[in-house]
Specification:
Elements: H1 4-8, H2 13-35, H3 43-80, H4 86-97, H5 104-126, H6 131-153, H7 165-170, E1 175-178, E2 189-192, E3 199-204, E4 215-222, E5 227-232, H8 235-255
Length: 266
Amino acid sequence: MGEMLPVLLSFPTLLFTGLLSLSVIYWLFVILGALDTDALGGADGAGHGMEGAVKGALEGAADGAAEGLHAHHAAGAHGVDGDLDIEGADAGLLAALRLRDAPLTVVVSFFALFGWLITGLYGLTFGVPGLLVGSGLFVGSCIVSLVMTSFAIRPLAPAFKTQAATRNEGLVGKIAVVSTGAVTETFGQATVDAGGAPFILQIRDTSNTLKRGDKVVVVHWDAPTNAFHVEKMPDELQDTATLMAEAEAEVAAALAGAPDPRRKVE
């Protein structure tokens, strides 16, 4: 431990140590939110707020790194040909590495882990690098970490696939049932029956009054955040919505040729 601490606090390992720490904190909040334990009590809302803050910090760090890399490429490119499409090149790199197949938080977490392992093992093996060697190690570890992250997320990509935008927009107006203990501006899930297997939706609400079992109406699909905005159904409409859902099920059964259970056999 005495040899490891100086390495973890030295450049460039320190950068990956900070990013990895944020990732661990974020996933801890995700796990606590998924467990939805009653032991959290009134701190539940604060926990989701902290989760959103940590996620924002992770995405901000990733965006900052991307902007820095873009600026570096742009500066070099304009010196040769000011008409080069740097944004297209960056998009092509992301597509080639398939880094868009997983959420940004997952990509950043893997990237931080691999970078931390590479630079940490180098420091433990060869000692703390100087500034010049450390800069080269940082650039090299970033490249290798991106490639390793690309291979790591490929088996997980099917788990992160979302419905097409047209299908998501088609869920607007549907009635869903809240499946998490709370719904905030950054966290919440609900299930909706769209004529087949129930969909699990990521939902958002600003009232902070929704709880598990509440029926809500999907009012908007927000593509940038990959989430649906919902509004709670008035209590007097809850029973009406249930009757309508039952009626729709009976109509669907009739169209499919299933016998009507209310029809007497002669």
